[in-house]
Design goal:
single chain; about 180 residues; TIM Barrel; transcription regulation; RNA-binding
């Protein structure tokens, strides 16, 4: 079982821009998610966050100027050193784990076939956390957690306070959202 670095946090605010990221550095959140970034900015952004006492979970697949292959994953782990790495890619998740960085496997659960192939993927990657998208399917959150025993973070299409509550009630440990109105829940 992973150490729950953010046991007191249920909302994981996701920054889509530099401005949002800088704003989040001045909030109460310990863990913040960096969605869109450019490879040239990463080192200074992580250093800024560390100085502000924040842990950054970096969406590896959304870094501009970086191909998400084995070398990119090594670079992120050894040079950039975020607290966590989120990715849909098996090699990125495995590399994060090897480097003792919190590994979050992002899953797009579009249909039953995607769900079944995700279970196979999870047997290989054994991530610390799973980010389930879209996060507005409480019964699927419950099923994935019961089947894997891996803590779930719900993300994607969560727009209302009630959807946050539904995801948490279904067993998610938290919700990622870029909607500022939900950051204060």
């Amino acid at each position: 079982m992973p150490q729950h670095h953010f046991i007191d946090q249920r909302i994981f605010p996701a920054a889509r821009s530099l401005k949002e990221f800088e704003k989040l550095l001045r909030t109460k959140f310990e863990v913040i998610i960096l969605l869109n970034s450019h490879v040239s900015q990463l080192k200074s952004l992580i250093e800024m966050a560390n100085r502000a006492g924040k842990k950054v979970f970096l969406h590896a697949d959304l870094v501009q100027g970086l191909k998400t292959d084995e070398y990119a994953a090594q670079f992120l782990c050894q040079d950039i050193k975020p607290a966590g790495i989120i990715s849909t890619r098996k090699n990125v998740v495995l590399t994060a784990k090897k480097n003792s960085i919190i590994a979050v496997q992002r899953l797009f659960l579009l249909d039953s076939i995607a769900l079944e192939s995700s279970y196979k993927l999870l047997e290989t990657t054994k991530p610390d956390y799973i980010e389930v998208l879209p996060g507005v399917m409480p019964h699927i959150i419950t099923e994935v957690y019961e089947r894997t025993g891996i803590p779930i973070i719900a993300g994607g299409l969560i727009r209302e306070k009630q959807e946050v509550i539904n995801a948490l009630d279904a067993g998610a440990i938290g919700v990622t959202t870029s909607r500022k109105e939900l950051w204060d829940l």
